[in-house]
Amino acid sequence: MMEKKREMGIAHFARRIKQPRGIWVKMAFVVLLGLCFVFFWSFLSSSASTFNVQRESFDDIAEPVSARTKSAHQVSESSKLHERGKVESGLKSKEGKKVGGSVHKHETKKKKEHAVSHPHKKKDVPKPVVVEEVVVKEDQEHGEAESDDSESNKEDGEEVTESDGTEGESDGNADDSSASVDEEVEEKNEEVTVDEISKKRKRKGPVFDPKAEYIWRLCNTRSKHNYMPCIDNDGLIGRLQSYRHRERSCPKKPVMCLVPLPHDGYDPPVSWPESKSKIVYKNVAHPKLAAYIKKHNWVNDSGEYLTFPQNQTAFNGNVLQYLEFIQEMVPDIEWGKNVRIVLDIGCSESSFVAALLDKDVLTVSLGLKDDLVDLAQVALERGFPTLVSSLASRRLPFPSGVFDTIHCAACGIHWHSHGGKLLLEMNRILRPNGYFILSSNNDKIEDDEAMTALTASICWNILAHKTEEASEMGVRIYQKPESNDIYELRRKKNPPLCKDNENPDAAWYVPMKTCIHDIPSAIEQHGAEWPEEWPKRLETYPEWLTSKEKAIEDANRWNAMVNKSYLTGLGIDWLHIRNVMDMTAIYGGFAASLVKQNVWVMNVVPVHSPDTLPFIYERGLLGIYHDWCESFGTYPRSYDLLHADHLFSRLKNRCKQPTSIVVEMDRLTRPGGWVVVRDKVEILEPLEEILRSLHWEIRMTYAQDKEGMLCAQKTLWRP
C-alpha cells in the first residue's frame, strides 16, 4: 500500500513537470525575483555607506588623551613626527574650548558657550575611540588660531594618475531618510578600532604625488554643464528617479572629471554693478529657464543678454515700496543698521536681495534643490550671495542664532508640516529677537490656522499682519523671544525644550530636531546680545570671544596684506571680481579687509577646524560650514576668486583623494577667474603642476623659507 502511494506521488510530480507552467518554471521565477531583489537592494543600500566617514562629533579636537587611548599613543611615538602635535581622543565629553582657547563645559544647559572644538555633529551619542595626530607645523602668521586642527576618519586612498569621466555615485534615495541614516552612521562609526586608526595614521607623505601624471576627461552626467556632485542624482538608479537627491548625497568616489562648458560656450560675465541689471544669457542657458522667462515679467530675454527691470519683482508692485512697507510696520528693523544679515528662503528672483544691498544689508539666498529652473545660478551670475541646499530633514550648515532676519516671500514651503520641523530649524538659526517675515498672496484658511498655532507654540510674537496694497501680498512679521522665561509659561510644552546635550551649533549631517533650544542668557554665550549697528559691528569684538587679541591681530595682518599685495601686486583686475570665497576662513579677516571693495565673500569654516563661524556672523559677514573632502553646494562657474590659506596642509592625509579638491576648485571658478593659494612650498610645487595640467595660467609664485604663495588664472580649456 505504501509503495503504491509512493508511485502515485512520483507520477503526480512527473505530470506537474510536464505541464507548461510547471513547478520548475515557478522555481526559476522565484530565484530570478530573488536575484533582482538582491541586485537592487545593493544599489539602494550603497548610498548609506557614503556616510560612514562623516564625523559624529568634534570633541576629539584639542582635548587631552584619555586613559583608554594611552596605549595607542605609545605605539605611535616611534614616528617622531608630532613634536608640536598632540594625540587626541574623542572620549572627553565634558571639556572643550571657547574661541580663543579657554576651557569651558559646553554640555550643560545654562552654559551654551561657544566651543572651539567644531560642533558640527550630534553629541548625544556615545563617541567612538578616535586617535588623531597633528603633524603639520603651523604657519607662524596663521597657525595660532587653528592649532587644534585634526584629521578625520576618512579612509586614505592612493593618488591616481588618470581621471574617469563616469564617476560612480550613491544610487537611489536610501540616504534620503536622514534621521534613520544618521542613527545608522553612529552605530557604524563605533565599530572603528584603535588598530584600524593606527594603520591609517601610518600613511604619511606628500599631499600630492609629485610623480603623478593626469589625463583629464569631461564628466558624463545627466546635468551636464550644471553638474553639482553632492546634489544632483546622477547614479544608475537616480536616472530612473528624481533629478536631484532629497538630501545631500555625494558620489562614493571623489569626482576627478571636469565639468564641461555650456553648450553654446561661455563669455566673460558682465562686471558689477552692471550685472545687477543684465547678464550673458548663454552662461546660464537652461531649457526650463527659457519657458520660465516667457511667463514672468521680472526677467526679459533680449537675445544676447537677460535683463532685469529695476525694482521689478515676481509679484506686483515695487520692491522698494515693499521694503518701506515692512519697516513702517516694524520701525526697529532699520535696514542696514539694526538688520545687517538676512537669509532669503527660495530664489525665485533677486530684486529683494538687490534692493537690500543698496541699504547695506547682506542677504544670502538659499536656492532650494527643487529649483529645476536653476534660478540660483542666475542670482550668482548677477553677483548675489547664493547657496544651493535641501530643506527637508537635515539642518542647514549654519550656526545657531546668527541671522538678524529670515525672509520667505511666496516660497511655497509648508512650515507647519512634519511637526513644524522646518520652522523649528528657522528658530534655531534666527537670532534672539530676530525677525521672520512671511509674505504670501494665497493663504489657505487651514494653513493660516496651522501656522498661527505653531508660531504660538514656540512663543513667536506676531508684530504685524497687513496686506501691501501695491503687491497685494499679505505680510506677517514674527519676532523670536529674547529670553527663556516665556517658554515656562506655555500651557502645553509642545514642542519640548531640547535636551541638555543637544548642541544647537551642530549642523553638518545632523537631522533637524523637533524641539526648542534654550536662548543664550550668559554674557559668555554667543547670541546673548544683539550685535552693534552696522558698520560698527565689523570692528566690535564681543565679550564671549576670549581670543580678542588674536582676532585683532588677524584683522590687522589681513588688512595690511590685502592692501599691500592682493589689491595691487598680483595682477588681478578687481573691477572684474565680484563673487569671492575664502576656503579657510578663521576670524573673517580676509573678508573684512575687502569690505570696501565691490565684492562679497563667502567665508567657509572647514568642519575639521575650530568653530569661529559665529564670530564671523557677529561681524556682519557671511559664512558656512563645509568639508572640503566633498563638493561644495553651488553651481559650476560660480566664483571669480578663490582664496585658500593653508587649506591643503591642514587637510593632509584627511581626504581620500586630495587632487579632487583642485578639481572642485576648477568647477567652482569661472573661466578667467582666479585662485590664490598660500601654503607650504612642498605643497605648492606639485599643485602648480596640477594646475598646469588643467591649462591654468600661473600668474605668480613666491616662496620664502618653506612658505609660499601661488596665483593662477583659469582658462576656457576643456579636454
From TrEMBL:
Any GO MF annotation of the entry: methyltransferase activity
Q: Which UniProt keyword terms apply here?
A: Glycoprotein, Membrane, Methyltransferase, Signal-anchor, Transferase, Transmembrane, Transmembrane helix
Q: How does it sit in the membrane?
A: Single-pass membrane protein; Single-pass type II membrane protein
EC numbers for this chain? 2.1.1.-
List, in alphabetical order, the GO biological process terms annotated in this UniProt record.
methylation
Coiled-coil residues: none
Q: Which CDD domains match?
A: AdoMet_MTases
The residue ranges flagged as biased composition, category Polar residues, are 68-78
- Keyword Transmembrane helix (UniProt): yes
Per the record, which residues fall in region Disordered? 68-204
Compartments in which it is found? Endomembrane system; Membrane
Renumbered to this chain, the Basic residues biased-composition regions fall at: 106-124
Protein name, per record: Methyltransferase
In its UniProt entry, the species of origin is given as Camelina sativa
From the broadest rank down, the organism's phylogenetic lineage runs: Eukaryota, Viridiplantae, Streptophyta, Embryophyta, Tracheophyta
